[in-house]
Write a structure and sequence with these properties.
Elements: E1 9-13, H1 16-19, H2 27-32, H3 49-63, E2 67-71, H4 74-77, H5 86-101, E3 105-111, H6 117-121, H7 129-145, E4 151-155, H8 160-181, H9 185-196, H10 205-210, H11 212-223, H12 237-257, E5 262-264, E6 266-274, H13 279-289, H14 294-297, E7 303-314, E8 317-318, H15 338-349, E9 354-358, H16 366-385, E10 390-396, E11 415-418, E12 423-426, H17 428-434
Parallel strand pairs: 1-2, 1-10, 2-3, 3-4, 4-5, 6-7, 7-9, 9-10
Antiparallel strand pairs: 7-8, 11-12
Helix pairs in contact: 3-5, 3-17, 7-12, 8-9, 15-16, 16-17
Family: Belongs to the glycosyl hydrolase 1 family.
GO molecular function: hydrolase activity
Keywords: Glycosidase, Hydrolase
Length: 440
């Protein structure tokens, strides 16, 4: 017997840049190929999902999954400002049709971190004009493809910029303290490792800081600015609200085309817990991560919740991971109970349907992944039993892929990919996830 009733969305998620390959008009492609890059390696062909999407969608369906969250790549649709590529629209039409043909509900994300390079050259995600440009892109896509969609996430992890700004500040403070103490390179590595494990995206903090001066010169050559404001840059408070305004403008544009489409965004959330003395810091962290966004999302149709682990706070801020705790390849603490806690906290403040748009684990041992999925989805089932309208659980990620600055070393996937041949091999966790839903 499945854990969830028929109609519940059980599936997996990807992001275009991480799986499609050869996203050559994007900001990330440019950054990956810079001499002083912070990326461990370039994305190149990725896992060639652009050409192999039917094979991947078929594998999902055969395993029992019924939903697929993927992103449409703005840099493909509008490679030059104001010029839309009909060939690329047709590509995503085929992906959407393929989902429908295999009984898979598409959950479409309009922006999953990557942007057209031209947008960054014009000021990127700190430029007010980006609000209208993003809305215009969303309107165009929905005019062409909206009839194939039901759920749309405008922006993935809209709060990521503030999280990165915060960990950058923490890392710099730690480095200043280490310098005072005369600590060496090993201390730098430990500080980088500790800060990277507190944000839910692949970063190379040490490399970023070491290359800062050289990167500034190269950024001027590549983007025309010393500090390009890509989506995953440290956000200013003004830029943080700009992202929210872009979401609202996009939602308005989408609804004007098709009022029946269900529109929301996703936020990266931690289960924020307080040790004695850390209660105030925990409240401040939850406000920055979630509460201050409420005025901008309270009229949405659903909320996309993304969670991987917890953050424990004391009077000084975020604590180190407990001694002896099991860690993922991303240096997150393995803590699947965090998902249930986040769902309950979110629903207390935001009375609307919730879709878990990302939750997953980067490990080599698939039995650990299966155990994580079991415990995380137990929490989802507990929430549903208590009347919280959780509509779906989408595991991150469908397949091992390009984890941003960390390259291909992180294995989150339900499907393994041999990148020398692009051969797919389903892990037992794929079928296990599909078995969590009622079939009759």
């Amino acid at each position: 017997m499945g854990k969830f009733e028929k109609g519940f969305l059980i599936g997996a998620a990807t992001a275009a840049h991480q799986v499609e390959g050869n996203n050559k008009n994007s900001d990330y492609w440019a950054m990956e190929h810079m001499k002083y890059t912070s990326f461990a390696e370039p994305s190149m062909d990725a896992v060639d999902h652009y050409n192999r999407y039917e094979e991947d969608i078929k594998m999902m369906a055969e395993a029992g999954l019924n939903a697929y969250r993927f992103s449409i790549e703005w840099a493909r649709i509008e490679p030059v400002k104001g010029e839309f590529d009909e060939k690329e629209i047709e590509h995503y039409r085929k992906v959407l049709e393929c989902c429908r043909n295999y009984g898979i509900e598409p959950v479409v994300t309009m922006l999953h971190f990557t942007s057209p390079k031209w947008l960054i050259e014009e000021g990127g995600w700190e430029n007010e004009e980006t609000i209208g440009l993003f809305a215009n892109y969303c309107k165009y896509v929905v005019e062409k493809l909206g009839s194939y969609m039901h759920y749309i996430c405008t922006i993935n992890e809209a709060n990521m910029g503030l999280q990165i700004a915060a960990i950058s500040a923490r890392y710099k403070a730690q480095m200043m303290e280490k310098m005072k103490q005369g600590a060496g390179a090993d201390a730098d590595k430990e500080a980088a490792k500790g800060t990277e494990g507190t944000v839910q995206v692949g970063l190379n903090m040490q490399k970023m800081m070491e290359n800062m001066e050289n990167q500034a010169r190269e950024n001027m050559e590549v983007f025309g600015v010393t500090t390009p404001q890509v989506f995953v840059s440290g956000r200013t408070p003004k830029g943080d609200i700009l992202v929210m305004k872009a979401h609202q403008a996009a939602k308005k544009a989408i609804k004007e085309v098709n009022a029946n489409l269900q529109v929301g965004l996703t936020l990266s959330l931690h289960d924020i817990q307080a040790k004695e003395g850390g209660e105030k810091r925990a409240e401040e962290e939850w406000d920055e991560e979630f509460l201050h966004y409420l005025p901008y999302i309270k009229e949405d149709d659903f909320f996309g919740l993304q969670n991987y682990t917890r953050s424990v706070m004391d009077a000084d801020g975020i604590c180190a991971v407990p001694q002896g705790a099991e860690l993922t390849q991303m240096d997150y603490e393995i803590y699947p109970q965090a998902l249930e806690a986040c769902i309950r906290k979110v629903y207390k403040e935001l009375n609307m349907p919730v879709i878990v748009t990302e939750n997953g684990i980067a490990v080599a041992d698939d039995t650990v992944r299966v155990d994580f999925i079991n415990k995380a989805t137990d929490g989802v089932a507990n929430c549903i039993a208590d009347g919280i309208p959780v509509k779906g659980y989408l595991y991150w990620s469908l397949m091992d892929n390009f984890e941003w600055q960390k390259g291909y070393s992180m294995t989150f996937g339900l499907i393994a990919v041999d990148r020398s041949t692009q051969k797919r091999t389903a892990k037992p966790s794929l079928k296990h996830l599909g078995g969590l839903i009622e079939r009759s």
